[in-house]
Amino acid sequence: MPRGKCACGDYTYEISDKPSATVVCHCSPCQKFAGANGSTNAIVPKDQYKLLSGDTDSWTREGDSGKEVTNFYCKNCKNLMRVEAAFMPDVYIVKPGTLEEVDVLNDVPVYQEIYTRNRPSCFGALQSVDQKAGAT
Ligand SMILES: [Zn+2]
Ligand SMILES: [Zn+2]
Protein backbone atom coordinates (compact mmCIF):
# COMPACT_ATOMS: atom_id res chain seq x y z
CA MET A 1 0.00 0.00 0.00
CA PRO A 2 1.34 3.47 -0.81
CA ARG A 3 2.60 5.34 2.24
CA GLY A 4 3.41 8.97 2.80
CA LYS A 5 4.94 11.25 5.39
CA CYS A 6 5.59 14.89 6.15
CA ALA A 7 8.97 16.61 5.98
CA CYS A 8 9.86 15.87 9.64
CA GLY A 9 8.49 12.32 9.53
CA ASP A 10 6.06 12.60 12.47
CA TYR A 11 2.91 12.46 10.33
CA THR A 12 2.64 9.20 8.40
CA TYR A 13 -0.25 7.72 6.46
CA GLU A 14 -1.13 5.02 4.01
CA ILE A 15 -3.69 4.77 1.27
CA SER A 16 -5.19 1.42 0.37
CA ASP A 17 -5.17 2.08 -3.37
CA LYS A 18 -3.59 4.43 -5.88
CA PRO A 19 -5.35 7.81 -6.24
CA SER A 20 -8.01 7.70 -8.92
CA ALA A 21 -6.89 11.00 -10.45
CA THR A 22 -4.91 14.15 -9.85
CA VAL A 23 -5.89 17.78 -10.41
CA VAL A 24 -3.34 20.54 -10.93
CA CYS A 25 -4.56 23.77 -9.33
CA HIS A 26 -3.32 27.35 -9.67
CA CYS A 27 -5.78 28.99 -7.28
CA SER A 28 -4.39 31.69 -5.03
CA PRO A 29 -4.55 29.64 -1.79
CA CYS A 30 -2.70 26.72 -3.47
CA GLN A 31 -0.04 29.14 -4.67
CA LYS A 32 0.34 30.54 -1.15
CA PHE A 33 0.46 27.16 0.60
CA ALA A 34 2.90 25.67 -1.90
CA GLY A 35 4.99 28.83 -2.20
CA ALA A 36 4.94 28.09 -5.90
CA ASN A 37 2.78 28.46 -9.01
CA GLY A 38 0.18 26.02 -7.70
CA SER A 39 -0.25 22.50 -6.45
CA THR A 40 -0.91 18.95 -7.51
CA ASN A 41 -3.77 17.26 -5.74
CA ALA A 42 -4.58 13.55 -5.54
CA ILE A 43 -8.17 12.52 -5.02
CA VAL A 44 -8.42 9.74 -2.40
CA PRO A 45 -11.68 8.34 -0.96
CA LYS A 46 -11.71 8.90 2.81
CA ASP A 47 -12.21 5.21 3.51
CA GLN A 48 -8.94 4.48 1.68
CA TYR A 49 -6.89 6.91 3.80
CA LYS A 50 -5.42 5.88 7.14
CA LEU A 51 -3.46 8.16 9.45
CA LEU A 52 -0.69 6.04 10.99
CA SER A 53 1.10 8.52 13.25
CA GLY A 54 1.49 12.18 14.06
CA ASP A 55 -0.48 15.02 15.55
CA THR A 56 -2.48 17.25 13.24
CA ASP A 57 -3.30 20.93 13.09
CA SER A 58 -6.02 22.30 10.85
CA TRP A 59 -7.17 25.57 9.39
CA THR A 60 -10.53 26.23 7.76
CA ARG A 61 -11.39 28.85 5.18
CA GLU A 62 -14.36 29.56 2.93
CA GLY A 63 -13.74 28.31 -0.61
CA ASP A 64 -15.02 29.89 -3.81
CA SER A 65 -18.06 27.62 -3.59
CA GLY A 66 -18.97 29.31 -0.30
CA LYS A 67 -18.38 25.99 1.47
CA GLU A 68 -15.66 25.20 3.97
CA VAL A 69 -12.22 23.97 2.95
CA THR A 70 -10.04 22.60 5.75
CA ASN A 71 -6.30 22.08 5.47
CA PHE A 72 -4.62 19.50 7.70
CA TYR A 73 -0.97 19.93 8.67
CA CYS A 74 1.65 18.05 10.60
CA LYS A 75 1.57 19.72 14.01
CA ASN A 76 5.36 19.68 14.25
CA CYS A 77 6.68 20.78 10.84
CA LYS A 78 3.46 22.37 9.42
CA ASN A 79 3.69 20.34 6.19
CA LEU A 80 0.30 20.52 4.44
CA MET A 81 -0.82 16.87 4.13
CA ARG A 82 -4.45 16.74 3.06
CA VAL A 83 -7.45 18.94 2.42
CA GLU A 84 -11.11 18.31 3.15
CA ALA A 85 -13.59 20.25 1.00
CA ALA A 86 -17.26 20.34 1.99
CA PHE A 87 -18.29 20.23 -1.68
CA MET A 88 -16.53 16.82 -2.02
CA PRO A 89 -17.46 15.19 1.31
CA ASP A 90 -16.35 11.63 0.51
CA VAL A 91 -12.73 12.31 -0.45
CA TYR A 92 -9.53 13.81 0.84
CA ILE A 93 -7.43 15.95 -1.42
CA VAL A 94 -4.00 14.50 -0.68
CA LYS A 95 -0.79 16.36 -1.43
CA PRO A 96 1.03 13.76 -3.51
CA GLY A 97 4.46 15.24 -2.93
CA THR A 98 4.10 13.68 0.54
CA LEU A 99 4.00 10.14 -0.89
CA GLU A 100 7.17 8.22 -0.11
CA GLU A 101 7.39 6.88 -3.66
CA VAL A 102 6.21 9.33 -6.26
CA ASP A 103 6.08 6.59 -8.92
CA VAL A 104 2.74 5.67 -7.33
CA LEU A 105 1.44 8.46 -9.59
CA ASN A 106 2.91 7.06 -12.82
CA ASP A 107 -0.34 5.63 -14.18
CA VAL A 108 -2.70 8.08 -12.48
CA PRO A 109 -4.35 10.42 -14.96
CA VAL A 110 -4.26 14.20 -14.54
CA TYR A 111 -7.98 14.90 -14.71
CA GLN A 112 -7.93 18.70 -14.98
CA GLU A 113 -5.79 21.79 -14.70
CA ILE A 114 -7.86 24.44 -12.89
CA TYR A 115 -7.61 28.15 -12.11
CA THR A 116 -5.47 28.50 -15.22
CA ARG A 117 -6.27 32.24 -15.18
CA ASN A 118 -3.72 32.43 -12.33
CA ARG A 119 -1.06 30.37 -14.12
CA PRO A 120 2.01 32.46 -14.97
CA SER A 121 2.52 32.41 -18.73
CA CYS A 122 6.02 30.96 -18.35
CA PHE A 123 4.36 27.71 -17.27
CA GLY A 124 2.58 26.18 -20.25
CA ALA A 125 -0.65 24.21 -20.14
CA LEU A 126 -0.34 20.48 -19.50
CA GLN A 127 -0.73 18.61 -22.78
CA SER A 128 -4.04 16.79 -23.35
CA VAL A 129 -5.43 17.89 -19.97
CA ASP A 130 -8.81 19.59 -19.63
CA GLN A 131 -8.23 23.29 -18.86
CA LYS A 132 -10.51 25.39 -16.64
CA ALA A 133 -10.07 29.12 -16.07
CA GLY A 134 -11.60 28.79 -12.59
CA ALA A 135 -12.81 25.88 -10.52
CA THR A 136 -15.13 24.55 -13.22
ZN1 LIG B 1 6.07 16.85 10.19
ZN1 LIG C 1 -6.11 25.30 -5.47
TrEMBL record:
GO terms for molecular function: carbon-sulfur lyase activity; metal ion binding. Residues 2-112 form the CENP-V/GFA domain. SUPFAM superfamilies: Mss4-like. Keywords: Lyase, Metal-binding, Zinc. PROSITE patterns: CENP_V_GFA. It comes from the Eukaryota. The keyword Lyase applies. Belongs to the Gfa family. This is CENP-V/GFA domain-containing protein. It comes from Extremus antarcticus.
